[in-house]
Design a protein that fits this description.
Helix content is about 35%, strand content about 25%. A 7-stranded mixed sheet has the order 9-12-6-13-10-14-15, sandwiched between helices. The chain has a 5-stranded mixed sheet with strand order 1-2-5-3-4. It has a 3-stranded mixed sheet with strand order 7-8-11, with no helix packed on it. The protein is built from 11 helices and 15 strands. The chain folds into 2 domains: about 170 residues, PurM-like C-terminal domain (Phosphoribosyl-aminoimidazole Synthetase, Chain A, domain 2, Alpha-Beta Complex), CATH 3.90.650.10; about 110 residues, 60s Ribosomal Protein L30, Chain: A, CATH 3.30.1330.10.
Length: about 325
């Protein structure tokens, strides 16, 4: 594929489409900005991986997040959908520099038999990640299966989507010790990994935040690493040049498939250059591959390069990605 083919495929991908739908919600919410009163002050604007609310104890932040699972995914892979319902929420908490506390779920199904594999998957992830399921809601008389899972976490120092700065290194960190859940775009490095390793790996992000090494980043979502980069850069009102040849990638996996996949452990971080080497070393010490894949720039444009080719993927000033239409990147 040429770089132009890759750009066209990314722009037309389901992952990009789902993320762009966020702009409709943002428009209805009026692009809510940080604010509030008393102990309920929100630290970040709507649109980050979690809401971050000042902890009434005065020690850091309470983190709140929720994930809804696509109906087709729940129908075709109910156990793994249940597992992912917990796993992706844990990832959101870690992406904000936090540690998960507990989850609750809302599960609709056409009977107890249909809900059982979903609940078993959730229970497996809860045990492996050490995050209890403390309540929720169920409906076993629904026309079709649906699942949403919400999570509470705590952070002492925040990593957010709003802190990327011109001159930062973009670093991708991903656990390559896995395989695709065929034929789907899910890179699973979780269900066969030792539970103790999963929990220790998740400590990396809050430790980076607390040590002052990282304050900007996101977990890699269903939009893939490039879609995640777009959301991060747009939120921070910056752009970037991204080198596709520099992306950590498993052997024998086609580039486009990798660009469109959701990894069970994957983060995109925007780091001050003085911190990049140390951060990459910390991931490497735990067997996780991390590499510098680009540089953040002041202009709100995202460019991709591959070999001698270079192409513009998106101009977020001219065409918002997840922002409400009409909201200027320079506002």
């Amino acid at each position: 594929m040429t770089l132009g083919d890759i750009v066209d495929a990314l722009r037309g991908s389901p992952g990009f489409a789902h993320k762009r739908d966020i702009s409709d919600v943002m428009q209805m919410l009026g692009g809510a900005l940080p604010g509030g009163s008393g102990d309920m002050t929100q630290a970040v604007a709507v649109g980050d991986d979690c809401a971050a609310i000042a902890d009434p104890s005065g020690e850091g932040w309470l983190l709140l997040a929720i994930e809804g699972l696509v109906e087709e995914f729940v129908a075709r892979m109910p156990w793994f959908a249940g597992y992912c319902g917990v796993m992706v929420n844990v990832s959101d908490i870690c992406a904000m520099g936090g540690r998960p506390v507990a989850v609750v779920d809302a599960l609709w199904s056409g009977g107890a038999g249909a809900s059982q594999p979903v609940l078993e998957g959730m229970a497996a992830a809860s045990a492996r990640y050490g995050v209890p399921i403390v309540g929720g809601h169920s409906n076993q008389r629904a026309a079709r299966g649906q699942l949403a899972v919400a999570i509470l976490g705590r952070a002492k120092a925040l990593i957010t989507s709003f802190n990327a700065q011109p001159g930062d290194d973009l670093v991708m960190a991903v656990d390559l010790r896995g395989a695709f859940e065929e034929p789907y775009p899910y890179w699973n490095a979780s269900t066969s990994a030792p539970a103790a390793r999963l929990r220790a790996d998740n400590e990396l992000l809050p430790q980076l935040a607390e040590d002052g090494l990282c304050d900007a980043g996101k977990d890699i979502s269903m939009a893939g690493v490039i879609g995640t980069a777009l959301m991060l850069l747009e939120s921070s009102r910056v752009g970037a040049d991204i080198d596709l040849d520099a992306l950590p990638r498993p052997d024998n996996v086609p580039l486009l498939r990798w660009l469109l996949c959701f990894p069970s452990f994957g983060y995109l971080l925007s780091l001050r250059p003085a911190h990049s080497a140390q951060v990459i070393e910390r991931f490497a010490a735990r067997g996780i591959t991390a590499a510098r894949i680009g540089r953040v720039g002041a202009s709100p444009e995202v460019w991709l390069s591959q070999g001698a080719q270079r192409a513009q993927l998106w101009d977020v000033e001219a065409q918002p990605f997840i922002r409400a239409p009409g909201e200027s990147v320079h506002a």
